[in-house]
Write a structure and sequence with these properties.
The structure is a single chain. The chain is an alpha/beta fold. It contains 13 helices and 13 strands. The chain has helices spanning 4-17, 48-63, 77-89, 106-114, 140-155, 176-194, 207-210, 217-231, 245-257, 277-284, 296-311, 346-351, 358-361, and strands at 23-24, 37-42, 67-72, 94-97, 119-122, 134-138, 164-168, 198-199, 239-241, 269-270, 290-293, 333-336, 339-342. The protein has a 7-stranded mixed beta sheet with strand order 1-3-2-4-5-6-12, with helices on both faces. The chain has a 4-stranded parallel beta sheet with strand order 8-7-9-10, with helices on both faces. The longest helix has 19 residues, at 176-194. The chain is elongated, with a radius of gyration of 21 Å. 50% of the residues are buried.
Length: 363
C-alpha cells in the first residue's frame, strides 16, 4: 500500500496544479486509456483528508487505466453543482462525488442520469434523489460508537464512576454522516446521561443544538468558548464528544485558553476522527485523547472498483443493501470498518500500516 508521505506530497502537487476553477483537467494518458474518463468532485481543500481522498481516487483510477478530472468545491455547494455540470458537459463516463450539501445535487444528478452517467456517492450519502447508483463509505454509526466507547472506558463509567461533565459536538447539519455519527455515540452514552453518571451542564444534548456548520474548527472553538463561559464558571469539563479532528483542535484551543492543560486542571478526554496529522501529533503530546482512523486508501480503492465494475457491465460487490435510504431509494453500499486510535496504539496502526512515518509524527 502507498506510503502516507507519497499521498501527502501528491496531494499538495494536485492542489498546486489546480486551475482557477479547481480542476485537474487531465490526470490520465490516452495511451493507457481503458474505459473513459471519471469525474471526481471533492468538497474542500481546507481539510488534508479530502486532498488525500482526491489524490487516492485519481491514482487508483489511473492504475485501472482511466483518465480523471478532479475538482474541489471549496465548501461552496453552488460551486460544486457548477463543477459537476461542467464535468457532465465534458462527457465524463462516471462521477465520484463527496457532497458538500447532500441535498443540493438533485437537479444536477438528474442531468447526469439523462446523460447515462453513473454516480458513486463517496463517504457522504447524497440525499433525496434516485440518481445515485452506489455508496462507498465507512460504518458511520460505528465511528460514533467507538468515540462513545472510548469516553465510557476512559472515565470508568462501566465501573460506576462519576458523575462527570461532558459536552457534545456534532458535524455539519448538511452532511448525512453527522446524524449517523451522533446516533451511534448517543446509543452508548444515553444510559449514562439518564442515570446522571454523565451530565451535560450546557443542557445542549439534541442533534440540532450541537451541529457545527462545515465541520469548522473555528466554529467549534467559538461554541466551546461560550459553553465554558456560561456553564463552567464553577466545575470542569471531563470529556468532549468531538466527531472530527479539525473540530477537536478548535475545542482544545478553547479549553487551553480557559486554563485547561495543567496538573491542577487537566485537559478532558477529547475524541476525534480522521487521524489528521495535527491531531495525531496532539495525541502524542498528550492533548487530544483519541481519533478514529479510516484508511482513506481503502475507501478510494472501493470507489474505483465500483466505477470499474459499472463501466465494464459487472455487478459491483456491496456489503450493505438495507441501511442507507436516501429518501428516494435504498442505495447499495460498501462499508469499511473504522479503528479507534490513541497514544497506546498509534504506532501499531498508523506507522506500521504505512499511513504515517515516525519522522512525520515527531516533527
Amino acid at each position: 500500500m502507498r506510503n502516507r508521505r507519497a499521498v501527502t506530497a501528491g496531494a499538495v502537487a494536485i492542489v498546486l496544479s489546480l486551475s482557477a476553477c479547481g480542476q485537474d483537467t487531465d490526470s490520465g494518458s490516452d495511451g493507457l486509456l481503458k474505459g473513459g474518463t471519471v469525474g471526481i468532485a471533492m468538497p474542500t481543500r481546507a481539510s488534508e483528508r479530502w486532498i488525500a481522498d482526491g489524490k487516492n481516487v485519481v491514482e487508483d483510477l489511473r492504475g485501472l487505466r482511466y483518465k480523471t478530472k478532479l475538482v474541489f468545491g471549496d465548501d461552496d455547494p453552488d460551486r460544486q453543482v457548477a463543477q459537476i455540470q461542467e464535468l457532465i458537459k465534458q462527457g465524463v463516463d462516471a462521477l465520484v462525488i463527496a457532497a458538500i450539501d447532500n441535498r443540493s445535487l438533485n437537479g444536477v444528478l438528474q442531468q447526469a442520469a439523462e446523460a447515462k452517467i453513473p454516480v458513486i456517492s463517496y463517504d457522504r450519502l447524497i440525499l433525496g434523489t434516485k440518481n445515485v447508483d452506489y455508496y462507498a463509505s465507512f460504518d458511520n454509526e460505528q465511528v460514533g460508537r467507538l468515540q462513545a466507547r472510548y469516553i465510557i472506558d476512559k472515565l470508568g463509567l462501566d465501573d460506576g464512576a462519576g458523575p462527570f461533565n461532558v459536552e457534545l459536538f456534532a458535524g455539519s447539519n448538511d452532511d448525512n454522516n453527522t446524524a449517523y455519527f451522533f446516533s451511534g455515540a448517543m446509543k452508548l452514552l444515553q444510559p449514562y446521561l439518564d442515570n446522571r453518571q454523565l451530565v451535560v451542564r450546557s443542557g445542549q444534548t439534541k442533534l440540532g443544538q450541537v451541529t457545527t456548520q462545515r465541520w469548522d474548527g473555528a466554529t467549534a472553538r467559538k461554541r466551546m468558548d461560550e459553553i465554558l463561559k456560561t456553564s463552567y464558571a464553577n466545575g470542569k469539563v471531563d470529556a468532549v464528544l468531538s466527531p472530527y479532528d479539525g473540530m477537536s483542535i478548535g475545542i482544545l484551543a478553547a479549553l487551553k485558553a480557559a486554563g485547561y492543560g495543567s496538573d491542577s486542571k487537566p485537559l478532558p478526554v477529547v475524541t476525534g476522527q480522521d487521524a489528521e496529522l495535527a491531531s495525531v501529533r496532539s495525541i502524542i503530546a498528550g492533548q487530544q485523547t483519541q481519533t478514529i482512523y479510516k484508511d482513506l486508501r481503502e475507501l478510494a480503492q472501493i470507489a474505483s472498483r465500483l466505477v470499474d465494475d459499472i463501466l465494464n457491465d459487472r455487478r459491483p460487490t456491496v456489503n450493505n443493501t438495507t441501511s442507507y435510504d436516501n429518501g428516494a431509494k435504498v442505495v447499495p453500499a460498501y462499508l469499511l470498518q473504522p479503528t479507534s486510535v490513541d497514544k497506546s496504539n498509534y504506532e501499531d496502526i498508523l506507522v506500521a500500516g504505512g499511513f504515517y512515518t515516525d519522522a512525520e509524527l515527531k516533527k
